[in-house]
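== Sequence and structure of one protein ==
=== Format: two labelled lines per protein ===
==== Data for this protein ====
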Amino acid sequence: MNTDTDADVDANTDDVRGRLGLIVPSSNTTAEPEFRRWLPEGITVHGARMALESVTIDALDAMSDDAARAAELLGHADVDAVAYACTTGSLLHGPGFDAELEERLREAADAPAVATARSVVRALEALDAERIAVVTPYTADLDAKERDFLEAAGVEVASIDGWGLESNTAIGALDADDASQQVLDSVDEDEDLGAVFVSCTNYRSLAAVEGLEEKLGVPVITSNGATLWDVCGVAGFETDLDEPGALFDRDRS
């Protein structure tokens, strides 16, 4: 018997224009809802998870071993592209690791792939942002690795402010108001900046971008925003949506 729910599913299936594979840490509760909120209509999200509870160097290193297998499984769903949505997990081993990770995921999924750390660099390049302020929920050792990674990519980090959190569920409990307040508390409005970067794919911050850009007068990018923009570009998805910030006015080259 065909119920109303069955009819809705059939209609939704008919409207599907593309599939996005999203690889996230197991404790991440933010990336999937943020992607679903801002993805173009008709693009579905299909998730794969890698074991992670605490955001520490050792835990992130162990988690990266699961990445290729997650991508391979997403390939079974015939996704159009894969996004590895973890910032520190894709920069952990320094310059070049992000590009190597993307290549491994591409081969495993047999589809275009992006990794958040590399997506952030591409986003900053698209915005011509050479000097930035960074806010994170991370501990000081991860902030130091992030600074080193960005500076090796040619980006001057004017400041970096972290909240010292290790528990990923605690990070996921933060919201856009927290992100906005952290940025406003730590970023000098008179600082000569090309952009502000809110790091971490489990930090619910994408909804804060528009308001922060209005207040600060510079582009604001987030980990999920940069990854979403990047993966839509490689997949050929048109971002004809209520775009969250200045980044989405730029083409991904």
